[in-house]
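#dry-run=false #mode=assembly
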Amino acid sequence: MSQPYRLAGRGRIDVSQPLTFSFNGRRLTAFKGDTAASALLANGIHFCGRSFKYHRPRGILTAGSEEPNALLDVDRGNGRRDPNNRATVVEVTDGMTLRSQNHYPSLETDVGALNDRLSPMFAAGFYYKTFMWPKAAWTRLYEPIIRRAAGLGSAPDRPDPDRYVHHNATCDVLIVGLGPTGLAAARAAAKSGKRVIACDEQAEPGGALLHDATSTIDGLSASQWVAEAIAELDTNENVILLPRTTAFGYFNHNHIALAERVTDHLANPPSGLPRERLWQVRAGEVVIAAGSHERPLVFADNDRPGILLADAIRTYLNRYGVAPGDRTVIATSGASAYQTALDLNAAGREVRVVDLRLAEDCGAELEAAKTAGIEVFNAHTVVGASGKKRVDGLLAAPIKPDGSVGEPITLSCDCVGMSGGWTPAVHLFSQSRGKLTYDTQRDAFLPGASVQQEQSAGACNGAFALDACLREGARAGAEAVGRATDAPPLATAPTFTGFQPVRVMPSSADPAKTRAFIDFQNDVTAKDIKLAVREGFESIEHVKRYTTTGMATDQGKTSNMNALGLVAGTLSRELPKVGTTTFRLPYTPVTFGALAGQNRGDLFDPIRKTPVHAWALQRGAKFEDVGNWKRAWFFPEGRETMDEAVARECLAVRERVGLFDASTLGKIEVVGPDAAEFLNRVYTNGLKAMPVGRCRYGLMLGEDGYIMDDGVVARLADDRFHITTTTGGAPRVLAHMEDYLQTEWSDLDVFLTSTTEQWAVIAVQGPRARDVIAPFVTGADLSNGAMPHMSVRTCDVCGVEARLMRMSFTGELGYEINVPASRGLEVWEMIWAAGEPHGMCVYGTETMHVLRAERGFIIVGQDTDGTMSPDDVGLDGLVSKKKADFIGKRSLARPDLVADGRKQLVGLRTAGDAIRLDEGAQIVDEPDHPKPVPMLGHVTSSYQSAALGHPIALGVVKDGRARLGDTVHVTTAEGFTTAEIVAPIFIDAEGVRVHG
Amino acid sequence: MLMITCPYCGPRSELEFHCGGEAHIARPQDPSALDHRAWAEHLFYRQNTRGVVAERWHHRHGCQRWFNALRDTASDRILETYPAGEPRPDLAREAKR
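#status=ok
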């Protein structure tokens, strides 16, 4: 029969919409509104997973997000598969494929279950105690086995086909959790007209009211009241209502992260919708109404499938119309579980109650049970459960007046509901940095004083009765919007509350032989915790890490208080002295997709492209990443290798002319009456008297005296400069200049504007550069006399208004044509076409690097590393001796900057010019020196020079300039090679070619 | 993530800002007049207190303005922001008013 445990006419599922799904290959049916857990239970399936360490059969324990056991692999088809989903929160869709995890070859027959027999080996801290020897076995034997055994599900093996988005939002009030408390708070807050965001992690808001079959609120049934509240909030345009949305992190300044599951509940999601939406909410006020978690009871074999939390049974019964068993025993130390017994009884199911408490310690719940004819065993403990893959009996034993445990009786059953009291969900409050205080009466850690603009209300604040929840919620909602509290909703029929805290159920069995689980997901037993304490672990944080209790994906939601209480009891300390472990985010697991959002694939990092990019791509250029820029690296022709292409490009520039896209250079427009004064203070050079129309290579230091950036300063007018920076340094340089302008020299009248993206920069370099561009230039005389090296003209190039600079980073005659970026490609193509008769060649960044190294020009960040002064790189001549002050000047006189032994830029040539050195290779005097070998410096740049026909290198060497001609040793992949220290310039030492 | 109130743009997320370290350390008028010790202290020595500190912040992905903020390093709360060049607000006196 299909769904034998489904009860007709009960629950909130939609029986008009039947679904089929599969579990481990079995085709099963369910209804819309079912979770995977309720659907499995409706089909009589409890056993749906194997535990982490011992591979013990496990069933469904809870009905909510705190589920530790029932972790399933969910496959929605087309690569939409992910592991470790809690069956209790997965909404079943038609055609969904579910699989259990952590077993081989099958759920029923699992070789890993051997671990359960060997459990004495796997006691707390077993991995610190075993596998100690032989040492060699660790890497070859133990680690591979442990690695294979570790972990739960298997990771998806295909790219995630779904889309995820990030969303930022602000609101006046954020309500977290929409049970009775949250709904009352949301209604009270929404009345003010302020902007409210209200979220709940479940498919429908309502929380515990959705499975409350007996309470009435304001004269309505619980479910009617929920429907009315939702309808009211839904129609309020100031309220954003977010079901299926978990508030998983509470950060500084009321910044809360929410994960909204948008389409997982749809069999065929519309293509426009993302799978999940990550909300980053800034809330004026937060009302936390996160509820509470029921505690399991700790007794031998309390992990058998068929043993659930008592309130979970009530949830399946009333909300999903599923009776998890025909003959249920409720084992409890408190009052709330009686409601489950009453509801089961009312549904016609056989039920008995085992209560740890004396009859006289019980309240109205006992009378209600007796009136209903339910058999209750007061003053009885539970000492065990029978049945391996499904519980078939519960062993209850009387506690005698002297406290000893009597003879057990077996209560035959197919389902057990246990309840050890309630633990408030204080996670978000704790993440908000609020301190928890221990409340003895409720045996719970409760929120103390708020640190942020936040209030906790309802069960998460220790209020377990329905009327108290409604009252606290209404008050918190009103206070959050600064209103007086209206009359709160009124609940009739008091809730059964109160419980007797118990850590481990009393038993006369040998505790050393008892497997009573505290942390179900990480397989931690009471025995393990006692062992850890006996071995000296007293801090709760140490016990946690040693035993791994609370460290699984459920983060100990069901186990935390039992573990803390047991540690306190074993140490004979009061519970608050033991304290609690840190509540870390996320509250429940969040997909990587939601965290990554749109930032993957092409959108992982911004990509910057120059106006010439498409042309270079079409031309077959290879690209390299420089910052976010894609720069053309080299342009291979035919089947050329990189070395061949670079050699060809280099020779073309030295012998004829080359074309280079320098658009990525950082550019800043410096304007204002004090622009010259300002730049004079920023650069080391004397710039104040620089004539209009001239350019200068400028060096910029940090206040510590080290080279920060370099570039060209071009004066366009008395009050206007165009400066360039390194490609990667542009934002840093602008921020640096803004800093001084705004905070130190705010009296200077200067404006700085980033113009990097506004200009395309076309460099034409080589002996024939002038011949190539001359036909296109109007409004400027290009002759040596009229426009010498290092000058700038505003003119027309190819009919486009341009800033034409005569400058060279190659050592050849050269021009850089700045045109508006939108005209860049057009000008580039015209010059390219005109260059052909001159034998022009397009070249990339690699050739640019070789050419500048041949000429000894440094690259800031490659030949310098943030600890190099101008003198270190031989540029002391660029430091003005006349200026009274500039940024970094004072530091150049620091003792360590003028001391001997500083690393200085030199050239390097290997013996016989045999090999090209590795960039980054270390330089030493004595390779055979006992370790550590004193280091002299390292190679910073190394290339094959096509023009010279041998390799060249630049490097930094201690006192290098005084050691020209010395032989040093340089590391290679094989060992060492020798190199001679030479001057850091290899071509045209006199610098005549640029004036050609 | 902090919420920082730029004196020019209003409250914005920390993502838009860059912290520039301790505030109210004026660059000496004539650095060359300082001995090595005094210059080293100007460059590198900072209070690094637990409690309320005045810090420089730059609205780098916004208006590009530098300003100062009083931040409690223990609670990570930003108590006040004010334009660069203005004196450090006296919180105790303001609280009394």
